[in-house]
Amino acid sequence: xxxxxxxxxxxxxxxxxxxxxxxxxxxxxxxxxxxxxxxxxxxxxxxxxxxxxxxxxxxxxxxxxxxxxxxxxxxxxxxxxxxxxxxxxxxxxxxxxxxxxxxxxxxxxxxxxxxxxxxxxxxxxxxxxxxxxxxxxxxxxxxxxxxxxxxxxxxxxxxxxxxxxxxxxxxxxxxxxxxxxxxxxxx
Amino acid sequence: xxxxxxxxxxxxxxxxxxxxxxxxxxxxxxxxxxxxxxxxxxxxxxxxxxxxxxxxxxxxxxxxxxxxxxxxxxxxxxxxxxxxxxxxxxxxxxxxxxxxxxxxxxxxxxxxxxxxxxxxxxxxxxxxxxxxxxxxxxxxxxxxxxxxxxxxxxxxxxxxxxxxxxxxxxxxxxxxxxxxxxxxxxx
Amino acid sequence: xxxxxxxxxxxxxxxxxxxxxxxxxxxxxxxxxxxxxxxxxxxxxxxxxxxxxxxxxxxxxxxxxxxxxxxxxxxxxxxxxxxxxxxxxxxxxxxxxxxxxxxxxxxxxxxxxxxxxxxxxxxxxxxxxxxxxxxxxxxxxxxxxxxxxxxxxxxxxxxxxxxxxxxxxxxxxxxxxxxxxxxxxxxxxxxxxxxxxxxxxxxxxxxxxxxxxxxxxxxxxxxxxxxxxxxxxxxxxxxxxxxxxxxxxxxxxxxxxxxxxxxxxxxxxxxxxxxxxxxxxxxxxxxxxxxxxxxxxxxxxxxxxxxxxxxxxxxxxxxxxxxxxxxxxxxxxxxxxxxxxxxxxxxxxxxxxxxxxxxxxxxxxxxxxxxxxxxxxxxxxx
Amino acid sequence: xxxxxxxxxxxxxxxxxxxxxxxxxxxxxxxxxxxxxxxxxxxxxxxxxxxxxxxxxxxxxxxxxxxxxxxxxxxxxxxxxxxxxxxxxxxxxxxxxxxxxxxxxxxxxxxxxxxxxxxxxxxxxxxxxxxxxxxxxxxxxxxxxxxxxxxxxxxxxxxxxxxxxxxxxxxxxxxxxxxxxxxxxxxxxxxxxxxxxxxxxxxxxxxxxxxxxxxxxxxxxxxxxxxxxxxxxxxxxxxxxxxxxxxxxxxxxxxxxxxxxxxxxxxxxxxxxxxxxxxxxxxxxxxxxxxxxxxxxxxxxxxxxxxxxxxxxxxxxxxxxxxxxxxxxxxxxxxxxxxxxxxxxxxxxxxxxxxxxxxxxxxxxxxxxxxxxxxxxxxxxx
Amino acid sequence: xxxxxxxxxxxxxxxxxxxxxxxxxxxxxxxxxxxxxxxxxxxxxxxxxxxxxxxxxxxxxxxxxxxxxxxxxxxxxxxxxxxxxxxxxxxxxxxxxxxxxxxxxxxxxxxxxxxxxxxxxxxxxxxxxxxxxxxxxxxxxxxxxxxxxxxxxxxxxxxxxxxxxxxxxxxxxxxxxxxxxxxxxxxxxxxxxxxxxxxxxxxxxxxxxxxxxxxxxxxxxxxxxxxxxxxxxxxxxxxxxxxxxxxxxxxxxxxxxxxxxxxxxxxxxxxxxxxxxxxxxxxxxxxxxxxxxxxxxxxxxxxxx
Amino acid sequence: xxxxxxxxxxxxxxxxxxxxxxxxxxxxxxxxxxxxxxxxxxxxxxxxxxxxxxxxxxxxxxxxxxxxxxxxxxxxxxxxxxxxxxxxxxxxxxxxxxxxxxxxxxxxxxxxxxxxxxxxxxxxxxxxxxxxxxxxxxxxxxxxxxxxxxxxxxxxxxxxxxxxxxxxxxxxxxxxxxxxxxxxxxxxxxxxxxxxxxxxxxxxxxxxxxxxxxxxxxxxxxxxxxxxxxxxxxxxxxxxxxxxxxxxxxxxxxxxxxxxxxxxxxxxxxxxxxxxxxxxxxxxxxxxxxxxxxxxxxxxxxxxx
Amino acid sequence: xxxxxxxxxxxxxxxxxxxxxxxxxxxxxxxxxxxxxxxxxxxxxxxxxxxxxxxxxxxxxxxxxxxxxxxxxxxxxxxxxxxxxx
Amino acid sequence: xxxxxxxxxxxxxxxxxxxxxxxxxxxxxxxxxxxxxxxxxxxxxxxxxxxxxxxxxxxxxxxxxxxxxxxxxxxxxxxxxxxxxx
Lengths: 187, 187, 382, 382, 305, 305, 86, 86
Ligand SMILES: Cc1ncc(C[n+]2csc(CCOP(=O)(O)OP(=O)(O)O)c2C)c(N)n1
Ligand SMILES: Cc1ncc(C[n+]2csc(CCOP(=O)(O)OP(=O)(O)O)c2C)c(N)n1
Ligand code: SF4
Ligand code: SF4
Ligand code: SF4
Ligand code: SF4
Ligand code: SF4
Ligand code: SF4
Ligand SMILES: [Mg+2]
Ligand SMILES: [Mg+2]
Hints:
The complex is a heterooctamer, with 2 copies of chain A, 2 copies of chain C, 2 copies of chain E and 2 copies of chain G. Chain C is of the alpha/beta class. Helix content of chain C is 40%, strand content 19%. Chain C folds into 2 domains: 2-243, Thiamin diphosphate (ThDP)-binding fold, Pyr/PP domains (Rossmann fold); 251-378, Rossmann fold (3-Layer(aba) Sandwich). In chain C, helix 12 (327-339) links the parallel strand 14 (312-317) and strand 15. The radius of gyration of chain C is 20 Å and the shape is globular. Chain E is an alpha/beta fold. The longest helix of chain E has 23 residues, at 273-295. In chain E, helix 8 links the parallel strand 6 and strand 7. Chain E contains 12 helices and 9 strands. Chain G has a single domain, classed as Alpha-Beta Plaits, CATH 3.30.70.20. Chain G has helices at residues 41-45, 70-74; strands at 11-14, 27-31, 51-54, 57-60, 80-84. In chain G, a hairpin with a 2-residue loop joins strand 3 and strand 4 (57-60). Chain G starts with 10 loop residues before the first strand and ends with a strand. The mean pLDDT of chain G is 93. The interface between C and D is large, with 85 and 84 residues. Strand 2 (57-58) of chain E pairs parallel with strand 1 (11-14) of chain G, so a sheet runs across the interface. The structure holds thiamine diphosphate (2 copies), iron/sulfur cluster (6 copies) and magnesium ion (2 copies). One iron/sulfur cluster binds next to helix 3 and helix 9 of chain F.
């Protein structure tokens, strides 16, 4: 079995986790990776916690089994820590990237640590919203892409252009800001 | 394969061929025969030629294949001779029993010969009709039952009682008259 | 009591004797006489059931699902297009574990339209979890319909059951049928099984189940199906005591012991096969015949035991095999493969769409089978 | 062109590239994204088709029958209950010899409701005469959908064809998909087959046929089905020339040559099987894997050739086997029985209703199979 | 001079397989004469599947798609869309029995009506499932004997034309084989209207099913209209109009008593005088409703936008 | 004091799986409160199949039969007959979405109506296939965006209550989650009527499907009535009556402009002022029809006996 | 462009005389030319298209006339009588 | 009379909290008891049955309230405000 680099995206229905996974996969594909972007297979409703996943590899991935934990856990909504068992979603050597100003209490000592980016602030600055819900996914793409160590910012911007039509300019800005502002959390 | 005694009933939709076969089978059953009464398996409409069959045997009949020719061919409507290939419906040693005053032209030399009974006259005498169509089937039961050599008149009358509810008296009379009036055709 | 009954009327008498609470059906040739006779029984008061004259077969089966879910004993009958139109809810009834009983008069599938016998309709539900019985005479229709209630409502089973028989050759042919004097001695008492739904003890039947929960419901169905042969044998044993007629093995063997070739068939054609066996035996050819009554669950072991050591098995399939061997033949093949026996297997699609198959046909098939390789052949007649 | 597409979108792209005239479909999870994407293509003008937004699946298939009967190229897609609700007309389409193409996203059958993958729906139409293909990735969905048109419309075939793939694991997972640059180089030209109905030359399709006439229509279907493997191989050969991807045998073997045990599977679980083969091989265990693309007509000979001389065949069935071995396993059994090979045959019902099956599961099944007798086992996970 | 007025071409050929005196066969002859050869028929399971003749012979001189019982309107939907896409304009006509329309075919019909395909849907109503041997359908009239209602139908005939009016289709009309002028006018109107489903509903007597002498078919068709049991009308874009002889029957005195119609038919033989009286009242009430509707200006009413 | 007026018992338990602000969930709470515990629900595939909770947990405190999409009215028919035969009287209630009613469930509904089973059928209408992610149904209003009508629905909403009136069922009524008094009165009337199918149709806003903020559900329900887009009425044995706030809206001036209702919803965002004007006209015409009908004495009209 | 793969065989072709329905008849309609006014009513209402009307008179095709008697009953001039086939 | 053959297992039982829907909430409704007149409107329109009204006041069950905001919008006395969960 080829080793894969896995990302788990955790957010709420409507926040755009699947799109984020798709853009990351697009970036990976352009870099010659074989890339999967996988939505959660559920019957969830708006507002409920939802997952998306990436699985990336230098060789063809045949497996379609569920992703259980990520090298990166991208937490789009920190309030979900009380709702979902977040710890189990990170591989032993993995990291957390969270949409938050500071480190999320209760997740100390998780994998190789926590990265923070205030994606909500970025989305609001750029007025990125759909049906009233701030699109925190785009800054998270920038943040996760950077933390993963697999991409240049350029890759992510090109991938965004390939996948996004509406509000493209703001979305590109959001990715860029996510990339720029992500940092190891202050605890 | 056990030898079976077969009767082919040929009439028109509405003339009661199936009922005739059923009564004959009932009479046979009471005499200890294993008896089948078989309607034609078709999608025919009112007025079209229709078949019914009997297959009688002293032992259980397992076969459900089509009856191709009879030891007796009971022709309820002589005008059908022009429409159906009547000859092929009689076994080499079989006989024809026809609802007619005299022998039917064109069927000479058929099997062991032709028997006639004016079933129409009997039905009309007894005012046996359904939806305007004279029920020639009951006199034919009497005639065929007698010609077959397998039954007493009593058997046929009991069988009629077992199977018929409406106009029972006239029906019994019709069977009896058929039995009485059937005779080798004058040619 | 012995009556002259067609296969369809035999079914109606069995249903009368089982006294269901709710009947629902939709007319289709050649099933129609069953429901007409039942309507008569209800009209005359001999049968105290509610008759729901639905607007389609899908609704007929759905009505029975609704009725059985609150505890009613139920019946429907259909054929061909009718079975296919209710197909979705046929599977639903099994998943819901409701002991519905259905009669199926086998008939060819269109287009072109054809009203004669063909088992294609029957085989469509072979993986659904229904107990499937096949009758080859009116007497068997009567007996197996009563047994179907015994199996379906048994607490170890609780799955729907169907009884099938051939259009016209059985459905419309009158033959002597012996009725069971007191069917209550055979049948489970009414209300012996607890219905899933009751206002006193509310529950939901069918909520969305996530994979593991769903798989568990299916595993339990597998276990219930595994218990069918035993329950069937038990009920058939009770019938044997009352009547002397024995279905308990789920299949019948005829002159198989010392046979080198065994014919395998279901339904009315079996009569011809039997005659052909006698005819071939009379010429010194060692053949036998096996008739299947209990088609699902399929008696792999019994069939394999019968066939073990034979030279050839000839399956008469009353259906067209498209892109694979026919269902009955694959079942036989599976029995052989599981037992590791090597028997030449020849299938004839014979009697498709009501084509008449005679003893002579069967003898001719035997000869053809000797000359051909294993596989499926379409029998066009001689 | 390489795009990141889900299995469902891959289907929609293939359909766009085939440029059908009439599309008709009814929504059902997990098929819905296909028709939503097609609606988008039509809205944007990329696809010039009429979209009939029917009120049920029965009507979706019926609409395509009406459309194809006068010569339209057509498409529909469905899943689970939807396939069962259109079941009657699925058979009708085959009998009418109309080259309709359908996508089937496999999903479990209720009750209870369950939206995840299970192949029970797929198998229900295995005797209908449809050409049946199974894809285990989005790329295969795209390729096989185009091939389906080639096979269905071929003058030697003229039968409907379906392509199936797993709910979610394939239907909703984005992966890189390479499109065919100019699909017209692969596909038959539009209007190459003569439609049955035309006012200029009136004929009736489906008049009541008496037994012999009916049987003849079925015999001709058998012959058409027999020609499918060749036509499939031909179309797959054209695709190979354009893309290098090869489906022409109808199945794929992985490390089978010197294997003693061969896993057999269809769909997304094959990925896990492949990994398990590598893992077991790494430990020196001689195993291989066989994936079926062309399920009907079933490649008996090819499969038997692969399995001949092996010790064991392990079939992974993504469906519950009720009263008989699962369909794929019986097909394998039949292949073995016809060839007279004696190979131990073990079936696992695994992944039922969307249960996740992993490489470790497959390895564990291998171990369990060694210890058990031939037969079917329900895999509850480890 | 009927043969000068109406087209002589036959599209339902002699030697078809209807029973002697079949009302549906008369109707079908008229319908096809009105529509001509560029007409595709879609026929679900019904007597006409048999009437059409045994394969490989066909009694139809127009293309016919036989289709599963529940599927006719959907098949016609797909067919008209295909013909339009392929640039082959034609009449696409569903010809279905009452069972195939008011019961098992209703859903497909309702869907096609809602989508507004340019098809003509004709229900020939013999008021039961006849092809299977006279079972009650949703269109069987109150009190009628059938094999599944051995003591008479306890229910009431579903008003399908009314239901189709509620669907707001552009054209709804009723037909009778006794009034070919009316039939031709309505069919030609329907064929000329582009867009939307045109629904026509014909009452077609059936000698074996209704239990009467086959020579009475036209007589019964006429009596159905003259007694007011069957009303000839059309509803064009919501506007209701009586047509043909029904125009003269608003006044109760002009209508023959329903008993004249009922007494000729074996299926009503068991009715008591009170039963007949009740049926007479139902018919009269229906005409009162019609009168009100006409006062209202012919606009068909319903409640909800 | 609402909690004093309406039963406090909950039969739809908290922790169910509807989206936040689901109008159907509000409606369902009210319906079950009105009917009480001796109520069997029959539910075809729809959002409520999910709302009901994941197996083996149920959010319903009454017995529920989940059933195939097309089968609900038929299953209810069999269930009520069985309960009557077994001597266990109860409310048998179908709770179905608009897709499951006006499209795929229509045939079974029509059959059950014709047969006259003693059941209550409730359609909760969120105007699209929501459970599968917002596809057009036969109940989707003209112009509305759905994923299968990316440029707005070219067709028109099927008038199912009107169609059920044409079926001559004893009771037809419309409902809104914003008017619980009206709901309770109608449900209790329906439950008290013996014999015949009672048809109720509720307009239930859906935040994700209609693209609006979930807090607006009741507000939108109210606006639908106040603008006259949704009319509260009942038809009892053929007699039409406006109910609740709709009684006061016959005069055009009393009705709010439809734009107030449309503009809050994302699904109508793409409508041009002319589109809105057209919809306003359709609504006004519908009210004119209602006015005429009321003049006529409230009797619902149709053409055929 | 010919039909292949046996598809031609599933089509039924327009045929005068799909069945020989004249054989179903128990009574035959006989036209009295002297009474006939060539009005065409019999032609119009015959369910079986078995009537031809021309200047030469009314001709009934007994190969296909089923003997229903509609023509006789509907003829405004009582020009047709039904005669038993026996 | 007990259910057998595993049939009990296909039934779902009434359960408060089929899912923990409180976790879906992005904003929580907070009641200002001083403004509340105990009119019950919030109780009546809550889709999630998450409101209790008694003499003691209005209590919202945050385990199941999904934060839709209907109660806040419909409260005739503006006694409820929505507060972000963040
Ligand atoms: C799904 C299905 N169910 C039942 C049938 C059987 N069937 C064929 S024709 C017919 C009766 C049709 O009745 P109707 O539509 O009124 O036409 P009629 O025969 O009276 O002319 C029936 C029940 C069928 N072909 N398909
Ligand atoms: C036969 C069948 N076709 C399709 C589906 C998929 N399906 C499930 S729910 C649903 C949508 C239901 O729409 P509606 O009745 O309006 O209820 P809603 O979801 O909007 O509440 C669909 C299409 C199904 N379950 N069964
Ligand atoms: S049964 Fe009636 S409708 Fe059918 S063909 Fe005969 S007369 Fe015509
Ligand atoms: S999609 Fe709409 S109707 Fe369905 S649960 Fe959500 S809000 Fe309710
Ligand atoms: S109806 Fe009478 S008068 Fe008229 S053409 Fe016929 S036979 Fe002559
Ligand atoms: S008797 Fe009937 S079938 Fe013969 S010509 Fe007259 S109307 Fe036609
Ligand atoms: S609606 Fe407002 S005032 Fe009324 S009970 Fe609720 S919080 Fe109190
Ligand atoms: S926010 Fe919504 S769910 Fe929460 S209590 Fe208020 S109305 Fe109920
Ligand atoms: Mg009819
Ligand atoms: Mg909906």
